């Protein structure tokens, strides 16, 4: 067989496979992100970002302490504006910056960024937590690739060849099929990105304290450089911003051995870039255990109380003017 014939046969063999793989990829990537309760409920937020549906005057950035503690609906109602919570569960600033970049690419520029900061904002996790949340969006997507490939879960081909990244992801594929077959069984989990937690105090903190006594946060130098890059970009592009350090249960604050040093770092950024810093770590909320479901996270009752106090602070300081 000549090389020419071999290439013709190979083409006839590969083309149908590529077409089938692409069609299957499109199907899964279309129905999977419609599942509101999959991947810790992150799909609606990613879809709103890429679909240009955030488009809010106020956006909230941060980790899970933003996601469950800043109620954008209270903010929008109280300030007669639009607000959206872009807090992402489990991640430091690298993933928060990814959402910021996508927001500016596909949505209008916000009038105010509420940047939730805490002891974990500049700490780099070693694993790609909740990695299924990226599946429907990562094909041919350089922004997601640049951030997620650093965690060594997905390889080059997962971003470049249809269907490859879904290999072994049986739960995700079943979720897409379930969405196709039972679309009505899909309760809304988040409202404009926010999901209040109707929970009571659990034993997470007590168990952690029993095991290790205290914890010293290790800030990541690369994340610190990225954070300053972000602050400079926002300053250059005239994006108004405030820092907010949400309440932390007082015993949880004592558990972090270098928490004061990290707060001082944010104060330094605040002074250097002239960004207002509202620190609620010593607010009365931080001393009320019944308002938390663990040491770092307010329950829904606590988040409503905190968000109303934040709104008052925004009004008193004319943050939207």
Q: How does this model look, in words?
A:
This protein is α/β, with parallel strands linked by helices and 321 residues long. It has one domain: SGNH hydrolase (Rossmann fold). Helix content is 47%, strand content 8%. The protein contains 13 helices and 7 strands. It has helices spanning 3-31, 43-50, 64-67, 72-79, 93-106, 142-148, 156-160, 170-181, 204-212, 221-236, 250-255, 259-273, 300-316; strands at residues 58-61, 83-85, 112-116, 241-245, 277-279, 292-294, 297-298. The strands form 2 sheets. Strands 2-1-3-4-5 form a 5-stranded parallel β-sheet. The protein has a two-stranded antiparallel sheet with strand order 6-7. Strand 6 (292-294) and strand 7 (297-298) form a beta hairpin. Helix 1 (3-31) packs across helix 8 and helix 4 (72-79) runs parallel beside helix 13. The longest helix is centred in the N-terminal third of the chain and has 29 residues, at 3-31. The N and C termini lie far apart (76 Å). 36% of the residues are buried.
Which keywords apply here?
321 residues, alpha/beta, Rossmann fold, five-stranded parallel sheet, two-stranded antiparallel sheet, 7 strands, 8% strand, globular
């Amino acid at each position: 067989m000549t090389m020419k014939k071999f290439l013709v046969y190979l083409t006839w063999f590969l083309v149908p496979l590529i077409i089938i793989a692409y069609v299957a990829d499109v199907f899964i990537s279309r129905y999977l992100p419609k599942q509101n309760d999959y991947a810790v409920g992150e799909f609606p937020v990613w879809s709103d970002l890429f679909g240009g549906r955030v488009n809010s005057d106020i956006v909230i950035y941060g980790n899970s302490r933003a996601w469950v503690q800043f109620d954008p609906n209270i903010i929008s109602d109280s300030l007669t504006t639009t607000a959206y919570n872009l807090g992402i569960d489990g991640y430091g600033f690298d993933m928060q910056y990814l959402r910021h970049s996508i927001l500016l690419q596909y949505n209008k520029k916000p009038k105010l960024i509420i940047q939730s900061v805490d002891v974990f904002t500049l700490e780099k996790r070693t694993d790609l937590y909740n990695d299924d949340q990226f599946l429907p969006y990562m094909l041919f997507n350089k922004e997601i690739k640049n951030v997620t490939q650093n965690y060594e879960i997905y390889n080059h081909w997962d971003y470049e060849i249809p269907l490859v990244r879904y290999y072994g992801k049986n739960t995700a594929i079943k979720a897409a099929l379930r969405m196709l077959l039972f679309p009505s069984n899909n309760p809304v989990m988040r409202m404009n990105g926010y999901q209040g937690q109707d929970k009571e105090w659990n034993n997470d903190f007590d168990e952690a304290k029993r095991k290790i006594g205290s914890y010293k946060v290790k800030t990541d130098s690369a994340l610190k450089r990225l954070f300053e890059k972000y602050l400079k970009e926002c300053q250059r592009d005239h994006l108004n911003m405030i820092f907010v350090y949400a309440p932390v249960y007082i015993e949880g604050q004592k558990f972090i051995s270098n928490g004061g040093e990290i707060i001082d770092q944010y104060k330094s950024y605040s002074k250097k870039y002239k960004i207002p810093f509202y620190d609620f770590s010593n607010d009365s909320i931080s001393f009320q255990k019944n308002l938390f479901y663990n040491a770092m996270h307010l329950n829904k009752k606590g988040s409503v109380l905190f968000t109303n106090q934040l709104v008052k602070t925004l009004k008193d300081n004319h943050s939207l003017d």
